[in-house]
Amino acid sequence: MSDKSKTILITGSSGMIGSAAVEGFLNAGYRVIGIDIKDCGKSAENYRHYTVDLGDSCAVESIIKENCIDRVIHLAGLAHSVDGKEYTWDDYKHLNVDCSVNVLEASKNIPVLFISTVDVYGFTDSPVTPETKANPVSYYAKSKLMAENECIKHPCHSIFRFSPVYTDDIKRDIQKRYYLRCPSVAYRIGKGTEYEILNIKNAVRAMVEWCAENPCNDIRIIKDPVRMNTADYIKAEKNEGRANFVLYLPEWVVKAGYKLLRAVTGENKYTYLLNKAVCPLRSEDKQDG
After folding, report:
1. Domain assignment of residue 60, given as a range
2. pLDDT tens digit string along 217-232?
3. Least buried of 4, 49, 143, 165, by fewest C-beta within 10 Å?
4. Does residue 153 sit within a domain?
5. What is the pTM of this model?
6. What is the DSSP string of the chain?
7. How many domains does the chain contain in total?
């Protein structure tokens, strides 16, 4: 079956990653069906959009049957809070777990690619692999791991654990690694910290390439080939007239503070944020070799 004869269903098709995925698959010659709770306003010859709540299992099943789907890319879900809004565990469970179950059950034997997150690993102090035991901290990561466990039951699947995703214009998921208050106050630990991140173009490329493979019920860590160095990013920000004030933090001070706080308060969302700075995630994956 050639690419142009395949029909790909993308959930969350109006989101940052979803809209880029739609463009990527259309450019690769696929027919694309998008599902999102919001209208995307997109019009293209090989694209059809459904404004549907994934909580409506009957609607999801009907869409899949009606369009003879060949592959499913499940991107829809609730990530982190936006504009200070706090979400409850019930919110995360419904959108990331219950809605995922609806998509998986409606997909039956259709290959499904589930997009998850490296946040499922939680606290790390050594390199991780797809086989490393997950220990999520946040509601977001816990719900994603629960959805992964549901996905594993599907007869034909792959799970991609994305590193923090960014575009040339949207960098909020990586800016927290070097900004205290964007775009004016930045911070640097020691000589700078290296983080694994994921450009939206590389994310889309990985998804498109998956659709040309034979599914093998696997888990993969998806990241850029080169890590982000906060010192380089802060320099670039200053050259653009931002990051007017930079707070330089000695590495030993941050590490000592982290160890003390973790010893006193244990593992929680606050010490987890410091863990990311002191022990940034390092992954071992086939991309490394």
Report:
1. 3-167+196-228
2. 999 999 999 999 999 9
3. 4
4. yes
5. 0.94
6. --GGG-EEEEETTTSHHHHHHHHHHHHTT-EEEEEESS------TTEEEEE--TT-HHHHHHHHHHHT-SEEEE-----S-STT----HHHHIIIIIIHHHHHHHHHTTS-EEEEEEGGGG-S-SS-B-TTSPP---SHHHHHHHHHHHHHTTSSSEEEEEEPPEE-SS--HHHHTTTEEETTTEEEEETT--EE--EEHHHHHHHHHHHTTSPP--EEEEE--SS-EEHHHHHHHHHHTT---EEEEE-HHHHHHHHHHHHHHH-SSHHHHHHHHHHS---B--GGG-
7. 1
